[in-house]
Amino acid sequence: MVAEDIVKVSRNYQVTIPAKIRQKFQIKEGDLVKVVYNDKEGTVKIIVTKE
Fold first, then answer.
1. pTM of the model
2. Structural contact between residues 27 and 33, judged by C-beta atoms closer than 8 angstroms
3. Does the pLDDT value for residue 1 go beyond 90?
4. In angstroms, rounded to a whole number, what is the distance separating the alpha carbons of residues 11 and 1?
5. What DSSP designation does 16 have?
6. Which Pfam families does this UniProt record tie to the protein (predicted)?
7. Which residues pair with 32 in a beta bridge?
8. What is the DSSP string of 1-51?
9. pLDDT 10s digits, 2-43
10. C-alpha–C-alpha distance, residues 39 and 29, integer Å
11. Are 50 and 31 in contact (CB under 8 A)?
């Protein structure tokens, strides 16, 4: 399954995780996510974590 959307970066460099992705991964306010940049692939991934 591929879920993607385009989001805008705010003036404080914040982005909103789109509702359909929050619902799919059951991300709620206060949850922690890990942001990982892969230099080789040039990608940024958001990983849901409960740490």
1. 0.73
2. yes
3. no
4. 31
5. P
6. MazE_antitoxin
7. 49
8. -------PPPTTS--PPPHHHHHHTT--TT-EEEEEEETTTTEEEEEEE--
9. 778 899 999 999 999 999 999 988 999 999 999 999 999 999
10. 29
11. yes
Residue 33 to residues 6, 10, 15, 43: CA-CA distances in angstroms? 18, 18, 13, 16
Pick from 1, 49, 44, 2: nearest CA to 27: 49
Provide the greatest CA pair distance for the chain. 31
Tokens read off for 39:
């230099």
Q: Which residues are within 8 A (CB) of 28 and not within 5 positions of it... i.e. 6 or more apart?
A: 22
Residue 20, phi-psi category: left (phi > 0), alpha (psi -120 to 50), beta (remainder): alpha
